[in-house]
Amino acid sequence: MDNLDEEVIVEGLTPFDVAMGGAKKISPPADFDGPVRSRRITDPLCLLFLFATWGVGTWIGAFNLQTGNYDVVVHPVDYRGRICGIDKDSDGKVLPKYWHPVDIFSNGVCVAECPTESNLVPTSKSDLICKDEYDLLAPDNTPLSGLVGCSSNGVISDDPDALVACGGCMYRGGGVKNVSDYCIPSAVTPIIAKVVELAESKSMGASGNWTDFEYSLEDWNSFEFATPIQRLVKDLRTVFPIFAGVGIGGTFLLGMLYIVAFLFPTCIAPAVWLSAGLIPAACGGGGALLFFLANDYNLDESGLHTDGEALFLNILAYTAWTLCGLVIIFLIRYARKINLGISMAKVASVGMRRVEMITVFAFVQFLLYAIVLGIFLLWFLMIAATEDFVWSQGKAFGNRLYFKEHNTANGNLYSFMLWFLIFALWWTTEFFTAIGKLTLSSSFAKWYYTPEKEGGHTVSVFGSLCCSLTKHAGTAAFGSLIIKMVQIVRFPIQVLQWCIKRSGLDNGCIDAIICSCQCCLFTIERFLKFTSKEAYIHTSVFGTSFCKSSHESFFLSGRNRDIVEECGSVGLWSIIFPKMLITLLVSIVSFVMMDTFYGDAMFSITNVTLIIAILAWYLSEIFMDVISVGCSTTLYCFLADEEIMGEEGSPFATKELEDFLALVNTNSSYPRLFKIDSQNTDVEGIEAGLKMVPRYDDPPSSKD
Fold it and tell me: Is the pLDDT at 361 greater than 70, yes or no?
């Protein structure tokens, strides 16, 4: 029988697999009766590299905390680089807090209040929004001496058109709304028309300066009053109660609710199918919200929202509706797989009830994620908030306009710090995920190898956490680094693709090359994620390093390819719908609340909603991993135990696991032989304590 098994195993692998040791079965210690007790520290060098990364990241954060100014990001800045409501003017008075555009370069001045009425036919300087009188006089010894035409012989002109043409003033906008202390006219078209009329009256086209002016006007028309990062930060600051309460808090509550539901086997099927049924409704409703918001953007004449944003929202709306239809088809087509996943979740549910404080562990992991994200976001904010302004210039109406903007002399340094922090954040979050998987795998493995499971024996999850941190943190760092390296390579390719499409230089050949690269990298990433998950389980059981665990787990899956193909991803079927529903519900509720309470006080509801959706997706994974890792670990331990015990069969399989394996055989075209020492169950037809179900590694031939 051993020779037959060996031949079957070899037939299931390629010659290369056999040469690489794929046919060699797992060889545990002689006294193996569960997760090994004598362990060594694995992959310590990679852990030291992670510590070094944290050290450099901390230095970057501390450096920017000293050089950055939070007020630069959250408050408007005028044309002289002064912060409205914070800095003082030449007379020593604190500048007003509101900001109003003052020239076609989207520079602005600090004003006491936003104007309520427009005035496109001014009769004097007092009817305009103007720069400081000191700058309008434009002495020769100041950077603003280029404001030619604003004054004559030391007297400021009282001709409104001349003041606008010299770049010293701007017309008042009507129906102005306050968006994060920015005064944005509700209708910018009349102002643009007035400025264009002024340009034509001064024969700008004939003078050869129209190109410079038109470029500047286009920038102003896009209402880039703040950088994209500043806009996002200001919006998050405005809606922080919803962001924290509904976005993060809602994800936590729904995730905990699902964990509690999965503790009870009778609640698993209703929870999964209810989630699956609500997803099409949520996609349809979310698509409708996006569609109506896109129409509002198209009707908006303030210039705050571009046609590109409206088009993007329409694309998202149709994508949501398409997803709605695909989910319905998916549910009909793969109902059997979903039921198989539910059956496997019931197996994990038994272990979840025996792991002490598993819900507390999920809470601690969630809290740690939130703290780490908060720290890194603060560091990112400080990089964007460097208070270093230099004089810059632009050309319009034949004159040069001078204004202050952020210094880009150290752009390379700040770009390096930004990208390094992004790398550190990616690696850190993946590392915490890996530690969580190692801890859960160790807990479920200890439970699986408990002989008397019905005797009330429990496993301490925090004991497993201590072991993971002290012995296998290097393995978690190694596995998470490999995955993130692939993602880091993918990210520039995505940016390159976006830049090429935006520039209009894309064609079929370029798209095919980029898509091929993305497809290959995505496949590698998915393979590494699958391998690392199995490697973490192997490490938690046998205490080996990441590379050895990856090798052993990969070939164990190869030797059991029939069951791995049939139910290797069954854990995914039981968690994907709850995860999707959490993300959709949190995003839709946040969107509706932000539109209701802060709709007129935000630059973009869509951007904040996307941030909330991304966070909800990744944070909900913390709770879903409890279920997914429970399913994967139980199945992996059974396959390893079956191979180790040989003809004796696995003595640790529970009744729920036997029911799941029986369901697998019922739905499979090629049933498999499962060797289970059914000491806790009474199964008819069992001989010598073995439950024998026919197994075929290949389809039976006609003569069989």
Answer: yes
Other CB atoms within 10 A of residue 244 CB = 13
Instruction: Classify strands 459-460 and 355-356 as parallel, antiparallel or unpaired.
Output: parallel
Q: In 3-state terms, the chain is what percent helix, strand and coil (to 5)?
A: 65, 10, 25
Q: For residue 51, what pLDDT is reported? A: 95
Q: What is the DSSP letter of 646?
A: G
Q: Which two tokens stand for residue 333?
A: 């087509």
When computed from its CA atoms, the radius of gyration of the chain, rounded to whole angstroms, is 32
What confidence tens digit (pLDDT) does each residue in 411-438 have?
567 778 888 998 899 899 989 999 999 9
HSE value, Cβ hemisphere, 13 Å, CA-based, for 283 = 20
Asked whether 315 and 621 are in contact (CB, 8 A), the reply is no
Q: Which band of pLDDT confidence, cut at 50, 70 and 90, is reported for residue 585?
A: very high
Q: In this structure, what token pair is assigned to residue 599?
A: 């709709």
How many CB atoms lie under 10 A from the CB of residue 330?
17
| Burial label, 211 (beta-carbon count in 10 A; 0-12, 13-18, 19+) | exposed
Q: pLDDT for 470-499, tens place per residue?
A: 999 999 999 888 876 766 666 666 666 666
For the chain, count helices (H), then strands (E).
25, 12
The string of pLDDT tens digits covering residues 86-137 is 998 878 889 998 888 887 777 889 998 888 777 888 888 888 888 888 888 7
3-state secondary structure labels for all residues of 201-256: HCCHHHHCCHHHHHHHHHHHHCCCCCCHHHHHHHHHHHCHHHHHHHHHHHHHHHHH
Measure the CA–CA gap between 178 and 408, rounded to whole angstroms: 29
Distance between CA atoms of residues 393 and 397, nearest Å: 13
Among 583, 572, 609, CA closest to 283: 583
Burial of 553 (C-beta count, 10 Å sphere; 0-12/13-18/19+): buried
Give the Cα separation of 211 and 224 in Å (integer). Answer: 19
Q: Rounded mean pLDDT of 591-605?
A: 84
pLDDT band at 453 (very low <50, low <70, confident <90, very high): low
CA–CA distance, 187 with 548 (Å, rounded to integer):
65
**DSSP labels for 534-578?**
HHHHHHHHH---HHHHHHHHHHHHHHTHHHHHHHTTHHHHHHHHH
Q: Are 320 and 297 in contact (CB under 8 A)?
A: no
- Residue closest to 244 by CA, chosen among 586, 621, 618: 586
Phi-psi region of 344 (alpha: psi -120 to 50; beta: other; left: phi over 0): alpha
Distances (CA, A) of 551 to 18, 42, 520, 631, 699: 12, 15, 22, 21, 28
Are the beta carbons of 635 and 562 closer than 8 angstroms?
no
Contact between 304 and 285 (Cβ < 8 Å)? no
Look at residues 421, 415, 412 and name the one whose alpha carbon lies nearest to residue 380: 421
How far is Cα 115 from Cα 122, in angstroms, rounded to an integer? 14
**Between vectors from CA 196 to CA 192 and to CA 199, what angle results, nearest 5°?**
145
Query: Quick check: 365 and 439 in contact, CB under 8 A?
Result: no
In sequence order, which residues have a C-beta less than 8 Å from that of residue 185 and are 6 or more positions away?
118, 173, 174, 175, 176, 191, 302, 303
Three-state SS at 122 = coil
- Flag whether pLDDT at 390 surpasses 50: yes
E strand segments, 131-221: 151-152, 155-156, 169-171, 177-179, 182-184
Closest among 39, 29, 38, 26 to 641, alpha carbons compared: 26
- Cβ pair 178, 76 in contact under 8 A: no
